[in-house]
Amino acid sequence: MGDWSDVTAVWGKLDADTGPQALARVLIVYPWTQRYFGTFGDLSNAASILGNAKVAAHGSTVVGALAKGVANPDAVKATYAELSKLHCNKLHVDPDNFRLLADCLTIVVALKLGAAFTPKVQATWQKFLSAVVIALGSQYV
Ligand code: HNI
Prior knowledge:
Layout: H1 4-13, H2 18-29, H3 46-50, H4 53-64, H5 67-71, H6 76-79, H7 81-90, H8 96-113, H9 119-137
Helix pairs in contact: 1-9, 2-4, 2-8, 8-9
C-alpha cells in the first residue's frame, strides 16, 4: 500500500484535536450527517458543533479506531469487520458517510502537516483511508 512509513509518519504527527476537528467538519460541511447524532445536543451552527464536547469525544473515538489499521496494514478488512456490522445493523449509518469522514480527516491532516503533506504522502494516506472505508462498508448486507 505505497510507502507505509508515510502513513505511520502522518499518524505520529497528529494531535488530540485531529478527531474532534474531522468529525466537526463532517457535521458542518454535510449537515445531513447530523441525523445520527440526535443525542449530542446543540448542533445548530458551526460554533456549537466546534464547541460540542460530545462531538469532540466521539471524534476522538472514531479517529482513535484508526490506530489498529495503522498498526496492521495487511489486515484492514478483518480489523474493521465488527465495526462495519455495528454501523450497518445497529447504527444504520449510510456507508457513503465513511468517505465523507475520510475526506474531512484528510483535510485536517493537510492543515496540520502543511508542506510536509506532499503529494506522495497524500497518495499513501488516502489509499489507507480508502481501505478503511471499504472495510467499514464490507459487512453491509
Ligand atoms: Ni462511527 C460509533 C468508528 C465513521 C456514526 N464509530 C463508533 C464507534 C467507533 C466508530 C469505534 C464506537 C463503537 C462502540 O461503541 O463500540 N466510525 C468509526 C470509524 C469511522 C466512523 C473508524 C470512519 C473512519 N461513524 C462514522 C460516520 C458516522 C458514524 C461517518 C455518521 C455520519 N459511529 C456513528 C454513531 C456511533 C458510532 C452514530 C454511535 C455513537 C454514540 O455514542 O451513540
